[in-house]
Amino acid sequence: MTLPFVVSIPHCGRDVPPEIRRRMALNDRQIIESVDFGTFEIFGRLPAAAMIHTPWSRLVADLNRSADNRGAKGVIALIDYHGRPVFNPGAEPDDTVIDQRVALYHAPYYHRLTRAMARVPFEMLLDGHSLNGTGPADAPDAGRRRKDVILSNNGDENGRPVSGRGPATFPADLLAAMGEAFERQGFSVSINAPYKGGNIINHYGPALIQAGKAAVQIEMNQDLYMAAGDIEVDPRRIEEVAQRVEGALAGFAERCFGDAGGR
Q1: Three-state DSSP class for 25?
Q2: Are 17 and 51 in contact (CB under 8 A)?
Q3: d(CA 10, CA 224)
Q4: Where are the extended beta strands (E) located within 56-167?
Q5: pLDDT, tens digit (0-9, with 9 covering 90-100), for 116-143
Q6: 227 SS3 class
Q7: What is the DSSP-derived secondary structure letter of residue 206?
Q8: What's the pTM?
Q9: How does DSSP classify residue 260?
Q10: Is residue 31 included in any domain, yes or no?
Q11: Which of 24, 58, 88, 96 has the smallest number of CB atoms closer than 10 Å to its CB?
Q12: What pLDDT score was predicted for residue 182?
């Protein structure tokens, strides 16, 4: 069974080009801590219509931020998710350097993703992420234990559009059905909490909705398959989680897309 999804995994990479690495204040382990651990092992194995990912660390260019987001946690992050400065003093990139890195690392990912969606028949763009099991200090849910799976469509906690925020990228009834599919596999599920979805689903979602398709962001709780503070997943636990995720998404596709799930 081929799932009628195009899968994007933008934060699984660990590599940093040497010319960028020399400017960074973080040590090797601290750089690796920015990885969305487990996302390639879980989403990369799905029998999807197409899948793209990147070898580059999100600290090289954050693919789930818009190219014009120049904030401290924008397309080129100045501080990481632990609040640490990414660059040595005086080595922070200026607008020219940011533009160059967007052209080299950010724009090509979007071009690849656009080409993938033009090349294959599909029903849904799935953007795969993971997060810490407990909200860090600067998160909207700081200190709180998170659900196993967070589904995001830029809507409210029922998946419905929110006035002033822009369109929902995935119909609320389908999002509820996806949540139920994960719950049948034993996962706890949250919708749009703590995060409502990043640039990838919001960039592509409105046009996909107009075309009768959809985009969803899925975040997996890293506590499912690794100990807090680790930088490697537990092979046995990640295999078990990946099988359950595939089962949930296969059941969802069969229920909601019917014959489209068997392409």
Answers
A1: coil
A2: no
A3: 20
A4: 124-131, 149-152
A5: 999 999 999 999 999 999 998 888 998 9
A6: coil
A7: H
A8: 0.96
A9: G
A10: no
A11: 96
A12: 98
